[in-house]
Amino acid sequence: MVTPTRRERVLKVLNDHKWHAANELTRGNTGGSEGLRRLRELRAEGYRIEGPKTVKGRTTRMYRLGIGAKTPPVMPAFPAWGYSDYNY
Questions:
Q1: Which whole-number Å values give the CA distances from 2 to 5, 25, 39, in the listed order?
Q2: What is the pTM of this model?
């Protein structure tokens, strides 16, 4: 039996396309302490990761896999110069 990587675990959680709190992605059985780094890795691979979102004027640390995100977008998830929080 092959154990899924933490990146694969985060992707599995996001695969329902619903919003997930950052602390859900950083749990030990999901992405671990580097769960948000896994989001950046997925963005770099072309997955459309949405978030953090704003609710009632407050930014909350919630993320989701964008609709149609299984196919990497034509543009990279963030510019080549490395700003990892850039959202499309």
A1: 9, 21, 22
A2: 0.67
Q: Dihedral through CA 84, CA 86, CA 87, CA 88, nearest 10? A: -120
Three-state secondary structure call for residue 76: coil
**pLDDT tens track for 10-54:** 888 888 889 898 888 888 877 778 888 888 899 888 889 988 887
Distances in Å between the Cα of 32 and the Cα atoms of 5, 37, 80 are 11, 10, 26
Instruction: Provide the phi-psi class of 17: left if phi over 0, else alpha when psi is between -120 and 50, else beta.
Output: left
Token pair listed for 60: 């909350």
DSSP single-letter state for residue 82: -
Q: Please give the DSSP secondary-structure letter assigned to residue 26.
A: T
Residue extents of the structural domains in the chain = 6-65
**Sign of torsion over alpha carbons 21, 23, 27, 31:** positive
